Amino acid sequence: MFAMPSESVRLFGTEEKVEPPVVLTAGKLTAELEAGNLRYIRFDGVELLRAVSYIVRDRNWGTYNPVISNLEVEEKPDGFRVTYDAVAKDATQEFRYAAEIEGTSAGRLVLRGRGTAVTDFITNRTGFVVLHPVEGVAGHPAGIEHVDGRIVETSFPDIIDPVQPMMELRAITHEAAPGISVTCRMEGDTFEMEDQRNWLDASYKTYVRPLALPWPYTLGKGSALDQSVTVTVAATDEALPPGARGPRIGIDGKEGTVPPLGFGIEPELAAATLAASEALQAARPHHAIVHYDTRRAEGLKALEAGVQAAIRAGAEPWLELVVVEVETFAEEVERAGKLNAELGSPFTTVLVSPASDLKSTLPGSVWPRGAPLDKLYAATRKAFPSARICGGMFSYFTELNRKRPPVERLDLVSFTNSGLVHAGDDRSATEGLETLPFITKSVEAIAKGKPWHAGPSALGMRANPYGAAPMQNPNNIREAMNRMDPRQRGLLGAAWYLGYFAHMARAAA
């Protein structure tokens, strides 16, 4: 007889303990201290910034969980001060830093980080990251100061920007609410902004070290970093009282059709999917996407197992075809078409992508060589004459936004999402659902009137376009970029999937 799982496992799929945040208060200025960083920086209840964090990343964009020591929190009626030491290390390298955070009731907040590489330290990013929220900010004006002192009036993007909307930054000023202006000044390096909604993050991220510079890069042993972020609030008498702000809940008269629901089948999980067919039938899936990559699979046997699992679950088999060859791609696609014919042509829709597009390419970089998309789509249509042809990305919306397919050659445009690309905590994962209305609006602009499809998506990562592979997570913890996220087995995961599907249903994905 099995013991009942604990409440923590039922909710989050893990026994990992999470320390509650410490709320810091200085007059009308408040912030939450969590793992040494600040979240939900507010003034008079108005969110100014989503977060300010000191981040240390490895060469695969994985984020270190620093070990914090000597933490001291001092609070007074007119301000607060936090200091601590931290170390980020693994078996091969180590970086240490000292942090200081000070807030005053005058509406001023200063964060400073002084770090030293104990060894040669290979990193893709080390330093401060500032997150501006999306709600009430997207599409709104911003004033920016460049590192050379130039002042420019611009705005936060509404349609999701595939590249950096703001570069060479020293400071950003925006109106957080009527009568409340906030300036965020960043010193110690050159900063630039990316639109994190690309990755299902509910924020615009301003980060240290431009992506145009080489990465990963090495902080030489003994080298020092000294950076700071200063947040200044200017409030007028026109600021709305707290009771006049906040969400409004209501029911409108719109009606729509719930879009078809599907699921993905990895070759190595086809047998497990087949065994769970009865449970899957209860979800009444419309389609199941069978992944096929000639570098991983075993030809006809792998495809047949995926098709059987799809049909047993009551789903229409779709094919997700990775094309490896660059010069002889047409022959590779033709071979896949013949395998499909041997199975009786079960695939009604074929999603196709060059293997080179499974890995991301940063803005300003050249995409690696792959089969030319227009010719690849034509070859796929010839090899699968009775199927709809779908293009786009097997990775995330980010890559679709940065490399847009010739949609006139397609019947359908596709992409996927993961909720754990940049952060692994519960709140970051769930608040990312705020970005889905912006993603669906942006996809519609990319598709230019063609139908679009949200492919196999999950809270965890099924693949890592930004490194060698997703984290394997043997300790069953909350972790960014992990494949087997524990919350997928808990009620938080169920809530995330429900929210994801609800947003997609609203957009009729």
Tell me which CATH architecture of the largest domain applies here: Alpha-Beta Barrel
- CATH first level of the largest domain: which class? Alpha Beta
Oligomer: single chain
What's the total helix number? Answer: 10
Strand content: 35-45%
Beta strand count: 25
* Tertiary shape: globular
Terminal Cα span: 43 Å
- What is the CATH topology classification name of the largest domain? TIM Barrel
Task: List the main descriptive attributes of the protein structure presented here.
alpha+beta; 10 helices; 7-stranded parallel beta sheet; 36% strand; Beta-galactosidase, Chain A, domain 5; 509 residues; TIM Barrel; 2 domains
How would you characterize this protein structure?
With 509 residues, the protein is an alpha+beta fold. The chain folds into 2 domains: 19-237, Beta-galactosidase, Chain A, domain 5 (Distorted Sandwich); 262-506, TIM Barrel (Alpha-Beta Barrel), CATH 3.20.20. The chain has 10 helices and 25 strands. It has helices at residues 7-12, 270-275, 277-281, 300-312, 329-342, 373-383, 397-402, 426-431, 436-447, 491-506; strands spanning 22-26, 29-34, 37-43, 46-56, 67-76, 79-89, 94-104, 108-117, 121-123, 126-133, 141-146, 151-155, 166-177, 180-187, 191-195, 203-208, 217-219, 224-235, 262-265, 287-293, 316-323, 349-354, 388-396, 412-416, 452-454. It has a 16-stranded antiparallel beta sheet that branches. It has a 7-stranded parallel beta sheet with strand order 19-20-21-22-23-24-25. Helix 5 links the parallel strand 21 (316-323) and strand 22 (349-354). Helix 5 (329-342) runs parallel beside helix 6. The protein starts with 6 loop residues before the first helix and ends with a helix.
